[in-house]
Amino acid sequence: MGAAATREAAPAARPAAAAPAPIMLGIDVLESQGFAAVKGKRIGLLTHPAGVNRRGESTIDVLRRAPGVKLVALFGPEHGIYGAEKAEVKIADRVDPRTRLPVYSLYGKNRKPTKAMLKGLDAMVVDLQDIGTRSYTYVSAMLYTMAACFENNVELIVLDRPNPLGGHKADGPPLDPQWKSYVGAFRVPYVHGLTIGELARMAKESPGVLQVPNAFNVPDAVRAKGRLTVIPMRGWRRSMRWPETGLPWVPTSPMVQDFASVAGYAMTGLGTYSDLNAKFDLGLRHGVGTQYAFRGLSHKTVKSDVLERALRALKLPGLSFRRVSVPGRDGKPETGVFVEVSDWDDWNPTELSIHLMVLACKLDARNPNPFRTGDASGFLRHLGSTAFYEALKRDGARTDAAAWFRDWQAKAKIYQQQSRKFWLYF
């Protein structure tokens, strides 16, 4: 990311405070307890490069040297255990050249561990860093793994990690049941406000969560007997965004290299779907050249000054916009609009995305309503709301994005109240 994104990393709306007490991640707590939850067990580990302890050591290495623990297999989510694979690219099973352990891909032929993969395991450990947004697939990998473990009488142990957006922000469209899939496995608002451990508790304790169409259907009796252990963090509070944890950010995927892009994913991830489906191009793109992933915006036909004026006219709370220019691949400058969070407390993470979809209808002169054409199934699996999509098809640029967002905010408040029973932190 560019310098502007770096400057923004410290929350601007809050006064300076003393450095927080060191956060102990789930893997740190497990180690402080002498690895009691996994000692004497043959375990598998589902993880990726961001699965590290607070000293930056890989959970793979921590568990390999843990006394009395037998790590016998690794499991990789989207992007693989080393984070080198591109989004939506299938990954094959392999042997890890560094540890010589088998690596079973959960983003290839199988999304859910098979009985053969789990054979001989006493427990499966999950250490994945989520970014707090429903369509980011690591929480789905955890859920699918939970289903397989419960069906095969294998304990699931989740090492908890922070929600980088904090635990108080929840907004955006909820997920219609027909769009439940690997890119939306939980029926929660688009920004859900829970940690991966809290989501695991929700799945274990709530009827229907361990049911995904065309993937699996875990009966309630099996769910109730399933063994889930969550190792909570120490020192994390719901008010903390990632910069306030004092922990370094380890990239969770090729396009999410820092906290700035984490926040950007929530803000633009639903409104810049040009690359999701070539048949469903809204014209808006995130990034400027190779910089500002999810934080820079551009349009394939509209100039940046026009886009900037349109964005400023929205008058969205907590946001400001400014034009940026970067060297292009052909030597010519590429321009776009950088989205800056000017007030983190007023900021509503997904509000911009909702307005971007309506703005796409206004900006596309050749097609006044791009939502009327093309295959929208991929878009809907991410968005989750058939009703809003139909409103966009019908009303286009006249769609009242603010009214839809207010309705979703009201629903998110109800969701937050109901989800408190799964909270591990306050």
Put the structure in a nutshell.
The chain has 426 residues and is an alpha/beta fold. It has helices at 3-7, 26-32, 59-64, 115-118, 138-151, 196-205, 220-225, 259-268, 304-313, 351-363, 377-383, 386-395, 401-419, and strands at residues 42-47, 70-76, 94-95, 102-105, 123-127, 155-159, 211-212, 216-217, 228-231, 284-286, 296-299, 319-327, 333-341.
Describe what this molecule looks like in 3D.
The chain is an alpha/beta fold. 28% of the residues lie in helices and 15% in strands. The chain contains 13 helices and 13 strands. The strands form three sheets. The chain has a seven-stranded mixed β-sheet. The radius of gyration is 21 Å and the shape is globular. Residues 1-20 have low confidence and may be disordered.
Secondary-structure topology with pairs:
Elements: H1 3-7, H2 26-32, E1 42-47, H3 59-64, E2 70-76, E3 94-95, E4 102-105, H4 115-118, E5 123-127, H5 138-151, E6 155-159, H6 196-205, E7 211-212, E8 216-217, H7 220-225, E9 228-231, H8 259-268, E10 284-286, E11 296-299, H9 304-313, E12 319-327, E13 333-341, H10 351-363, H11 377-383, H12 386-395, H13 401-419
Parallel strand pairs: 1-2, 1-5, 2-4, 5-6, 6-9
Antiparallel strand pairs: 3-4, 7-8, 10-11, 11-13, 12-13
Helix pairs in contact: 5-6, 10-13
Portion in strands: 5-15%
Termini distance? Answer: 32 Å
Number of strands: 13
Which outline best applies? Answer: globular
Number of helices: 13
CATH architecture of the largest domain: 3-Layer(aba) Sandwich
User: Roughly how much helix do the residues carry, as a percent range?
Assistant: 25-40%
Radius of gyration: 21 Å
Q: So, the CATH homologous superfamily of the largest domain?
A: Uncharacterised protein PF07075, DUF1343
Low-confidence stretches: 1-20
